[in-house]
Amino acid sequence: MEVDDDNSPSTSAAVPDGETMVPTANSTPVQPPAVPPAVVPPTIAPLPAVVPPIAPIPAVRPPVFKPPVPQNGEVKAVDSDSDHEDDGRATAGEYEISEESRLVRERQEKAMQELLMKRRAAALAVPTNDMAVRTRLRRLGEPITLFGEREMERRERLRMIMAKLDSEGQLEKLMKAHEEEEGAISAKAEDIEEDIEYPFYTEGPKELLDARIDIAKYSIVKAAARLQRARRKRDDPDEDMDAEIDWALRQAGNLVLDCSEIGDDRPLSGCSFSRDGKLLATCSLSGVAKLWSMPRVSKVSALKGHTERATDVTFSPVHDLLATASADRTAKLWSSDGSLLKTFGGHLDRLARIAFHPSGKYLGTTSFDKTWRLWDIDTGMELLLQEGHSRSVYGIAFHQDGSLVASCGLDALARVWDLRTGRSILALEGHVKPVLGASFSPNGYHLATGGEDNTCRIWDLRKKKSLYIIPAHSNLISQVKFEPQEGYYLVTSSYDMTAKVWSGRDFKPVKSLPGHEAKVTASDISADGRYIVTVSHDRTIKLWTAGNIEQENYMDWTEG
């Protein structure tokens, strides 16, 4: 029997050391060949396999990618089932919308709706007249006003109501129904009132009509006399206009300070010469007006009656009367001996300037209530309350014919009114700041205005435009005055502490009158043109005269 060579090594290799192979029953003992025994290295028993311990589960889960959340708040479904199984608990907590986020989204949606509502409201046409706004609110069934609601707030409330109705599609239908109702009502009213004719003007009292007729008659005579005098000077060969103007300008160029007197304990605000030049009136912030004798400026009397500061004083061109204006909202009429004759009350705010009509029968006052008023001197009645300025009215001046009056105010506008008809015939725009003073030239067609833009403008009433702009002062111009006889020169007073004289022919500078130590508030020229007086916040009255006039006055004073 042959022995399988393949099985022998495996058999011997299968017997471990120290054990004896036992032959089987069928096996035949085989004698080992005579081969020297091989040296078998000791066999190292394999170590038992060591199973590594299982790593503990970490307490913090790794970050899980969150898909973007849709706008509608629903969580996007996960495609993989394993993802659902692994992240089931985490998904339920991570994709749930918190209460705070829901409130934030609600606020955002509400803000967006309000923005859209405001855009829609801005596109709607809303009435600007407060009465129309109230009427529209009444038609829409809303309260016409709320407690403490102002005009702009009421208009904005109407706008939002209309926008809300428009978004709901109800505005057009509702307004159409109201328009149909209003049309039916107006048609009935037209049927009833079709025979009634209303005047296109506001009717005034009979006294105003009489005053307009009187002013028209007076102005016709005065204008005819002025034109006749102008024609005579033009046609008479003996009349030399240039020579007269040159002489007057030389006299103005020789003006010197003749007298300076303390006028009051408080700053002075106005001054005026009497018609004969023998008296001078001043007023101050103390509310007291004073009369002074000329030419030595000696105090005659004090006129006390106003409860607030006095703002202006003026003498009547016809009578020995003077009028004062005050911040107590009244004007007062005084006699030259100091007795109070009348009080004119009616303005709603403090008065600014005051002026007599050339006829001496009427008095004009301006006020910070945006109106100027015309008063009857004899009766003390208010004849006219005239609006027309958008801001406070400050200055007033009457034309020498008596037919026109100029008003100027803080709206940087000067207006010329026809007293015979009550119409505003000119609106003079050019100043860029409030206009504080106005004066008509005796030639009848020039008007001077001065204001806070430091300029004096000369307006030609025939051309209805600005003829000349005088950069007169370095501060605001408080008052302007033409020489009252022929208008050969013009005097401006200013807050730069000076008064200046300008030519009435070419409006060039003639003379500067420095001397005050504070703002010059007012100035005036005597009827004969011999004196110029200025008053200031330094409480002084300064009288300016030409050199030869000063010598004549000195001789008269020494002889007396």
Summarize the structure in words.
This protein is an alpha+beta fold and 560 residues long. The strands form 7 sheets. It has a 4-stranded antiparallel sheet. It has a 4-stranded antiparallel sheet with strand order 2-3-4-5, with no helix packed on it. A 4-stranded antiparallel sheet has the order 6-7-8-9, with no helix packed on it. Helices cover 27% and strands 30% of the residues. α4 packs across α6 and α5 runs parallel beside α6. The N terminus and C terminus are likely disordered. A hairpin with a 5-residue loop joins β10 and β11. The chain is elongated and about 100 Å long.
List the helices and strands and how they pair.
Elements: H1 7-14, H2 81-86, H3 88-94, H4 99-122, H5 130-139, H6 151-167, H7 171-193, H8 206-235, H9 241-253, E1 255-262, E2 268-273, E3 279-284, E4 288-293, E5 298-304, E6 310-315, E7 321-326, E8 330-335, E9 340-345, E10 351-356, E11 362-367, E12 372-376, E13 382-386, E14 393-398, E15 404-409, E16 413-418, E17 423-429, E18 435-440, E19 446-451, E20 456-460, E21 465-470, E22 477-482, E23 489-494, E24 498-503, E25 509-514, E26 520-525, E27 531-536, E28 540-546, H10 547-559
Main sheet strand line-up:
1-28-27-26
Please report the distance between the alpha carbons of the first and last residues.
191 Å
The CATH class of the largest domain is identified as Mainly Beta
CATH structural architecture of the largest domain: 7 Propeller
Per CATH, the superfamily of the largest domain is YVTN repeat-like/Quinoprotein amine dehydrogenase
Strand content: 25-35%
Number of strands: 28
Look up the CATH topology of the largest domain: Methylamine Dehydrogenase, Chain H
Structural class: alpha+beta
- Total tally of structural domains: 2
Number of helices, where a helix is a run of at least 4 consecutive DSSP H or I residues: 10
Let me know the average pLDDT: 82
GO biological process, one term: mRNA splicing, via spliceosome
WD repeats: 303-335, 344-385, 386-427, 428-469, 470-512, 513-544
Biased composition (Basic and acidic residues): 76-89
GO cellular component, one term: U4/U6 x U5 tri-snRNP complex
